[in-house]
Specification:
Elements (H helix, E strand, L loop, with lengths): L3 H15 L8 E5 L3 H7 L5 H22 L3 E8 L7 H20 L3 E5 L7 H14 L6 E8 L1 H18 L4 H7 L2 H5 L12 E4 L18 E4 L9 H13 L7
Parallel strand pairs: 1-2, 1-5, 2-4, 3-4, 5-6
Helix pairs in contact: 1-9, 2-3, 3-4, 4-5
InterPro entries: UPP_synth-like, UPP_synth-like_CS, UPP_synth-like_sf
Family: Belongs to the UPP synthase family. Z-FPP synthase subfamily.
EC number: 2.5.1.-
């Protein structure tokens, strides 16, 4: 064992000891950024090896979240903008995502697909829906898998769903306009019934949300981490929790 290994272990234990129950967010959202850049700087050549390493890292993160008592994790795997990538780049990424979702299902995580599934290839949409149906209601950590996701699209879908529901009841636009409030829209989001994210993490050093959970993140705390996603360590996760616990949450004030 090298000199850095025991020092890392001691630092990790120290961080963990300092964290209390109040430092655990109920819902953690993660923008898994930097897979391609990690592959390049690691000399792997094929960027899909970075995507696969990033997919494998997800299961480490879920273990860490489960240990800490996190209730919900939202993973942004593919945006609606990414669907416009060249076919030779997009198809291998979609296969990795499909295999990841199947593994989540097989390991018994409670998978909640979210995103514009109608924009995805049939095979990807089918895997997402089957995983959601097979794991719905399982106890423990809920894993929101955001594929073909965009924050603006989610809000538009929520409004569209709300209008369709009210139209089926015979509600007029005028009647709906009189009583429409934030809760009505919230009930039609992809994350309906879940707590809003307390903590949003983005890796790779980028300091923007890029449309991630636009509606739900109104009162979230943000943590931007320099490390690329495949290199994200448990100590990085604990640092994010430490930063979250140190914040004085004002909820908009």
């Amino acid at each position: 064992m090298g000199l850095r290994d025991p020092l890392y272990w001691l630092y990790e234990r120290r961080l963990e000891r300092k964290l209390g129950d109040a430092d655990t967010p109920r819902h953690v959202g993660v923008i898994l950024d930097g897979n391609r850049r990690w592959a390049r700087i690691s000399g792997l050549g094929d960027v899909n090896r970075g995507h696969q390493a990033g997919a494998d890292k997800i299961f480490e993160l879920l273990g860490w979240c489960s240990e800490r008592g996190v209730q919900v994790v939202t993973l942004w795997l593919l945006s609606t903008d990414n669907l416009g990538r060249p076919r030779e780049e997009l198809e291998p990424l979609l296969r990795i995502i499909e295999n990841t979702v199947i593994r989540l299902r097989d390991e018994g995580w409670n998978v909640n697909p979210m995103g514009a599934l109608d924009l995805l290839p049939d095979s990807t949409a089918r895997v997402m829906k089957e995983a959601g149906a097979a794991t719905s209601g399982k106890p423990g950590l809920i894993v929101n898998v955001a594929v073909g996701y965009g924050g603006r699209r989610e809000i538009a879908d929520a409004v569209r769903s709300l209008l369709a529901e009210e139209a089926a009841k015979g509600t007029t636009i005028e009647e709906l306009a009189e009583r429409l409030d934030l809760e009505h829209i919230g009930e039609h989001l992809y994350t309906r019934g879940q707590p809003d994210p307390d903590l949003l993490i983005r890796t790779s050093g980028e300091q923007r949300l890029s449309g991630f959970l636009l509606w739900q993140s109104a009162h979230s705390e943000f943590y931007f981490c320099e490390v690329f996603w495949p290199a994200f360590r448990r100590v990085d996760f604990l640092r994010a929790l430490r930063a979250f616990g140190a914040r004085n949450r004002r909820f908009g004030s």
